Amino acid sequence: MMKTVLLLLLSLTAAQAFVASRTRVSTSKLSMVPRFDGEKWEPTTPEEGPEAGYPPSKTILLHGPRPWFNRVFTPAQYEQAVLKFMAGDNCTRDDAQGNMDAYLRNPNDWATNRMQEDSKGIKVDYVTINQKQIILTVVWSAIVVWFFSSALFPSLF
To answer: How confident is the model at residue 1 (pLDDT cuts 50, 70, 90)?
Structure first.
């Protein structure tokens, strides 16, 4: 019975572990944007290259496993998507990566946030790490691992 209640609570709140905070953020615009050479997007400055963005470890902390898998296992497609977003929105590399990771995590929520950005002027910050959210994610992950390991291997507990 206790495991059922724990599973119910986990399923109700686990979805909130990877939610971006809504804050007003000012972004610095780039003077140069990536260019399209007819086949693929190319960075025009070093600030637009993959080295300038945040690492995959920050992707998993901010947005969860789905964008991380896309970033690690299909890096060329991910890079093209980030450069295309930078060119379309004229934004920084970090903002483009944050938006792309949020889109890969949940396209419907990302689209809703973009529409609210246009109508209400509140920009969602997809790049800043919220320490409280990281602690919550780690605690819930530990609970999930404990729950499934005790269910699969009851002799160990």
So the answer is: low
